[in-house]
Amino acid sequence: MTTKRIHPPTSALFSKPRSRYSSIGCGRDADSSRGLKPAVREAKTKTTPTKRKGTYPQFRALGTLMMLSGLWIPAPRGGVSVSAAPPEAPTHAAPADSKKERIDAILTALQQRSDGLHDIRCKVRFVEDDRVNLSKGVKVGTIRFLLSKPNPRFLIHFEKSERDGMRGKQEWYLFDGRWLYEAIERLKQVTQREMVREGERVDLFDLERAPFPLPFGQKKETILRNFTVTLIPPRPGDPPETDHLVCVPRPGTVFDRKYDKLEFFIHRTLHLPTRVVVTRSKGYEINTAEFPDLSARSLNTGLTEKDFARPRAWKHYKVVVERLDPQE
Fold first, then answer.
1. Does 250 fall in a domain?
2. What is the dihedral of CA 85, 260, 240, 299, to 10 degrees?
């Protein structure tokens, strides 16, 4: 058996994508693997192993879903910044000091949210709004998350999708603590990426280093070091019982090169986001993730590692494997 080693250009977590990505924005389309000879053939399943540098690939839409990391965001009109001189507040707004105290309390609660948490299971609705190409896509499915050891696990399954009136097929994103699997029914392909070396632990509560930071458990100091955080007064259309935080990346941070702003609608008793809005490209790319049924019943539901097994639907899919380069 002959294995062809492929060394793609080095990429960083927040660097420019090194290749074209699929509709969810997390994996490469089938075109990007043309010319690669399969290293292993088993029945109808082909496996193509490749090598890549020991850095994390770009996750755009998956980043929106799993990088609900805490509470960052800009300062639109009427908001009050935590770290800069507050703009003139509207007459109906609370005093600046009161808003700063409220932001501090929200960030502290988010930092402590992982305490006593075992798992999360809820629905997700994901909207991609491309205002350059005047295109909009909607995906609907479920999210499972398990605080397992040594590393957490998650599974995002989009059961239904639609783009510009055209119905799509299923998509899966599974992280088993070491490998990230991206399965696209339309392509009949699974891309298996090594995110963590064997025996290595990854801290998904580390905002600055994790491959996909979590939307809770982030340190307040780290958030404020990377973002200017603003509390926005309630508006029509906001999810009920939420605080609207807007986070603008600080100049010179890796987040500044990736995002215009991040918006989080944090439930006041669950201390988890029920809506996340990510704006890029000077407002021409807006992704929104909503968790419509997130409630106390969604927490600690009894998920186990068996709930994160690879779906049987992948059995005959082509498999593309990307391993981290050996450590020197």
1. yes
2. -110
159 belongs to a structural domain: yes
Flag whether 247 is in a domain: yes
Domain that holds residue 295: 59-179+202-311
Q: What is the DSSP letter of 39?
A: S
CATH number at residue 234: 2.50.20.10
Q: What total of structural domains would you count in the chain? A: 1
Per-residue pLDDT 10s for the chain (328 aa) are 333 343 433 333 223 333 333 333 343 343 343 343 433 334 345 556 665 554 444 344 455 555 443 322 222 223 333 333 333 333 344 566 788 899 999 999 988 887 888 999 999 999 999 999 999 999 999 999 998 888 889 999 999 999 999 999 999 999 999 999 999 999 999 999 998 888 888 776 566 665 555 555 577 888 898 899 999 999 999 999 999 999 999 999 888 988 999 999 999 999 999 999 999 999 999 999 999 999 999 999 999 999 999 999 999 999 999 998 887 5
Answer yes or no: is 253 within a domain. yes
Six-digit token pair at 97? 């000091």
Q: Whole-angstrom Cα distance, residue 270 to residue 91?
A: 30
